[in-house]
Amino acid sequence: MLSQNKSIIGFLYFDEAGYVCITNDGSHHRILVEDEDRLLKKANCLTTSIARDIRWKNTDDVETWDVGILSDLEHDLQSDGQDPQEELSYENEPYSTIIISAS
């Protein structure tokens, strides 16, 4: 959730070595991401997406899904004889995202 005190922390760009960076008035930083083993890697990929937050009705956990993949999940649930509206709670409307990753 966005805080009420929104501020620009910098601008994303690719440096000459191909890594995702952020710069602001006083500094330049390479973006790092954690892999599945919690090891740090230099980010070198930006992907835009439309996402939506859902909650499985039997848990309190909120999950963020790409809307295309979420559509596949809804189809799979229907194919299994389940109603997605009964299984999932949609927490918000779809929103734009940028996924930062290391390839």
Could you explain the architecture of this structure?
With 103 residues, this protein is of the alpha+beta class. The chain has one domain (11-101). The chain contains two helices and nine strands. A hairpin with a 5-residue loop joins strand 4 (32-34) and strand 5 (40-42).
Describe the secondary structure blueprint for this structure.
Blueprint: E1 11-14, E2 20-23, E3 28-30, E4 32-34, E5 40-42, E6 45-56, E7 62-66, H1 67-79, H2 84-87, E8 88-90, E9 95-101
Antiparallel strand pairs: 1-2, 2-3, 4-5, 6-7, 6-8, 6-9
Quick take:
17% of the residues lie in helices and 43% in strands.
- Form type: elongated
Low-confidence stretches: none
Number of helices: 2
Helix and strand pattern: EEEEEEEHHEE
User: What is the strand tally?
Assistant: 9
Helix fraction by DSSP (H/I, runs of at least 4): 10-25%
Whole-number average pLDDT?
91
Keywords:
103 residues, alpha+beta, 17% helix
